[in-house]
Design goal:
Elements lengths: L2 E5 L5 H4 L4 E3 L3 E4 L8 E5 L5 E7 L4 E7 L7 H17 L9 E6 L8 E6 L2 E6 L2 H5 L1 H12 L5 E4 L16 E4 L6 E4 L2 E4 L15 H10 L4 E5 L5 H8 L4 E6 L2 H14 L6 E5 L2 H7 L6 E4 L11 H18 L4 E7 L6 H15 L3 E8 L17 E7 L1
Parallel strand pairs: 1-4, 9-10, 14-15, 14-17, 15-16, 17-18
Antiparallel strand pairs: 1-3, 2-6, 4-5, 5-6, 7-8, 8-9, 10-11, 12-13, 18-20, 19-20
């Protein structure tokens, strides 16, 4: 039914431990005519079945879909999506005051190369592999079956996430339905979701619980939300009773959406100001009266070759925050770079604290929420790191 790919002798150990990737160096041979994105049967050197997955060109040769020899059809997709939905229901994410959550998180939901975020009655789907791109309509139809009347549209947004060397003609657009309402609710707060032009799928779903934590620290404080994007932390800080909130992002479009989200929740508020300005420039010239600062920059390292410069960037950014933050202030600082591990990020922040000469306590160590699960056999899936620090 599917073409075959054979591993070198002794290279099956990671698959026997259920790791969902086959690296190109482990491949001995494959059937002729195998093309990128095809489903392939992975066999050991002797020809015994190991896994089914999407074949791709690059250092990762196969992303595993199943360790059972089964057809990858509509029933397969429905079963996987139904399982993912049941997890989100168990987490209590489908509520009257919350209809924003991640339904599928790649390897964490045994669907490598696929991300699906839910915003009210709209689903935004991203493919990170050629195989998932080719399966997009099958996945969308299965998703519609599983979600039923709670879903009106499925928007496909993968023009920036697919391997550029694959030369795919991928256009963003609706696979099912038309544009649903772009207003969704997270923990009782309303947000405009720009899945057409915004970053990622339109909203940073992974910071939901960290935004909620910040709300509890915000009362009476002057808050700086750096790299604010759509203003999530700012809106939570305002609800938490912040004395004043400043939102900063280099993108004027992000500032427009931030202002719209603030107005959506607090139409008459007077204590929020936004600035379209470079982060380092703003930090350099800012006053020293902020007593709650959020640093949530975009990924400084999207691959290991950029790791050294990324760590320098995190050190420089946090050092400036330590220099400027008021005594008794609280710093929320994050890295979403998958190439940077927890220890490396913590060392960068430690170095910044030492350079500043400030006395710093760790109050919380943060990570991605439960709807961004980490496959226990795939620790590489842990990408979001955060620290909440008390600065004297």
């Amino acid at each position: 039914m599917y073409k075959k790919l054979y591993l070198k002798r002794g290279k099956d150990a990671s698959l026997l431990r259920f790791h969902p990737w086959v690296f190109s160096g482990a491949v001995a041979r494959m059937d002729e005519g195998l093309t990128e994105g095809e489903i392939v049967r992975v066999l050991d050197f002797e020809g015994s079945f190991l896994a089914l997955g999407h074949y791709q060109i690059g250092s990762i040769a196969v992303r595993v879909l199943s360790f059972e020899d089964c057809p990858v059809d509509g029933g397969f997709w429905r079963k996987r999506l139904a399982c993912a939905l049941e997890v989100r229901r168990a987490l209590g994410l489908q509520r009257e005051d919350n209809n924003i959550y991640r339904l599928v998180h790649g390897e964490g939901d045994a669907l490598p190369g696929l991300v699906i975020d839910i915003y009210g009655k709209a689903a935004v789907m991203q493919a990170h592999s050629v195989g998932m791109h080719l399966c997009r309509m099958d996945v969308a139809e299965a998703l519609s079956d599983v979600m039923g009347q709670s879903l009106e549209s499925v928007y496909y947004k993968s023009d920036s996430t697919l391997p550029f060397k694959a030369n795919l003609e991928s256009e963003n657009g609706y696979l099912i339905g038309e544009k649903a309402s772009d207003i969704a609710v997270e923990n009782g707060l309303k947000f405009h979701i720009d899945w057409l032009k915004g970053q990622k799928t339109g909203f940073f779903v992974d910071q939901r619980e960290n935004r909620s934590l910040l709300e509890h620290y915000a009362s009476g404080r002057k808050v700086l939300n750096m790299f604010c994007y759509t203003g999530g932390f700012s809106v939570y800080a305002l609800r938490g009773g912040a004395h004043e909130v400043h939102s900063v992002d280099s993108s004027s479009r992000a500032i427009e959406v931030t202002d719209a989200n603030v107005a959506l929740n607090f139409p008459d508020i007077k204590n929020h100001t936004s600035y379209a300005e470079d982060a380092f420039k703003y930090l350099q010239g800012m006053d020293t009266d902020y007593d709650l600062v959020v640093l949530d920059p975009p990924a400084f390292a999207k691959h290991k070759d950029a790791l050294r410069n990324a760590l320098k960037g995190y050190t420089r950014l946090n050092a400036k925050a330590f220099e400027k933050i008021k005594s008794g202030g609280v710093l929320f600082t994050f890295s979403c770079s998958q190439a940077v591990n927890k220890e490396q990020f913590r060392l960068a922040v430690f170095t910044a604290a030492a350079q500043s000469g400030r006395y710093v306590r760790i109050l919380h160590q943060l990570h991605q929420p439960a709807d961004h699960p980490i496959n226990i056999y795939h620790p590489e899936g842990e990408y979001l790191k955060g620290l909440v620090l008390y600065v004297e």
